[in-house]
# Entry
Amino acid sequence: MLQAADAIRSLAEMADTLVDDYDVVDLLTGLADRCVSVLGVAAAGVMLVSPGGNLGLLASSSETMRLLELFELQAQEGPCLDAFRTGERVEHQDLEAESGRWPSFSAAALGEGFRSVSALPLRFRDATLGALNLFSVTHSRTSPPSASCSIVPAPGPSL
# Structure
């Protein structure tokens, strides 16, 4: 019940930031930080697609996570990229056992102390706009089995 209350409080706080002059990077950094506190993961990062079609890092919950996300982009391998490309959730409860899929990325993540990862595509309608990476320092599921991320547009002003 405490986790549900934390999630509701986090959503309410994030909704308060959606004012005329809100900063998208600040909003997404808050999302990454809230994923860490509410979901109990060690780190979180958000990548979004640019108008040119390239994925880029927008927010992370820590400097270690930021560097790992940048490494993922440079190496062109890892869970966030796969979730973005396929539009499907990607999860590995044991990065050591799954190192064959992403050899460079897995070695870098393990070197930073992470042991498992989930990546959730960020969708708006039928388009995948990016992905959310969730990392854990244990061999465990890093997100709920039914988790997915959809961006729902806010309703327009009422007249």
Summary: The chain has a mean pLDDT of 78. The chain has one domain: 2-150. The CA atoms of residues 53 and 100 lie 27 Å apart.
